[in-house]
């Protein structure tokens, strides 16, 4: 089910993959992955899909990931031990009375913990992120980076005819550092394509 085995480093790499799929040189993912296909995801697995064609608006792989960070035109994630879950928390406007005495005993005395009000979701252990959203609901990440876990890059765009395209790319730190994974633009076996202007208005070739 992989669209391509390698790495996407730049917007040019992403456009090359989108165009190769459009022209039939590479295959987009037509449906959600099965459990066996999820288990087969490896460093270098890259998947391209279109929302209406696949019936997927959101990619699921059964793994836990850190909150996203922006890296160029991509969002990046680190694989984590633990799971993200929604929790109810007071809104920012109702947290002005929060102080250190309200923290669990396990967190008391942690170096660097602020004594001022904290408008964040608080985890009892590990790393935590999050903050008040609608009606005081927060997304809180419980966990810590997984030893030898993978990283994931994601990109979503619209074509000029309204199609919603997505790329998900998995890789390991070691494979990336040692340049073991080729990109579409430096892979001698990848078709050399000229991307039509304005076909992908969110990204300029």
UniProtKB/TrEMBL annotation:
GO MF annotation terms: DNA binding
Pfam families to which the protein is assigned, alphabetical: Gti1_Pac2 (PF09729)
Coiled coil: none
UniProt xrefs under InterPro entries: Gti1/Pac2 (IPR018608)
Organism the protein comes from: Linderina pennispora
Protein name listed in UniProt: Gti1/Pac2 family-domain-containing protein
């Amino acid at each position: 089910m992989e669209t391509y085995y390698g790495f996407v480093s730049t917007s040019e790499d992403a456009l090359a993959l989108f165009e190769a799929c459009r022209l039939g040189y590479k295959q987009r993912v037509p449906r959600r992955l099965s459990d066996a296909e999820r288990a087969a995801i490896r460093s270098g697995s890259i998947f391209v899909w279109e929302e209406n064609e696949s019936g997927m608006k959101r990619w699921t792989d059964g793994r836990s990931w850190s909150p996203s960070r922006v890296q160029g035109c991509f969002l990046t994630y680190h694989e984590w031990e633990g799971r993200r879950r929604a929790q109810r928390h007071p809104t920012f406007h109702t947290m002005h009375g929060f102080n250190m005495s309200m923290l669990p005993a396990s967190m008391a005395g942690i170096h660097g913990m602020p004594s001022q009000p904290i408008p964040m979701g608080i985890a009892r252990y590990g790393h935590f992120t999050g903050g008040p959203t609608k009606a005081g609901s927060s997304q809180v990440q419980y966990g810590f980076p997984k030893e030898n876990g993978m990283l994931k890059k994601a990109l979503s765009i619209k074509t000029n005819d309204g199609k919603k395209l997505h790329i998900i790319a998995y890789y390991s730190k070691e494979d990336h550092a040692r340049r073991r994974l080729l990109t579409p633009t430096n892979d001698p076996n990848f078709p050399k394509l000229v991307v039509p202007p304005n076909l992908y208005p969110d990204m300029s070739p």
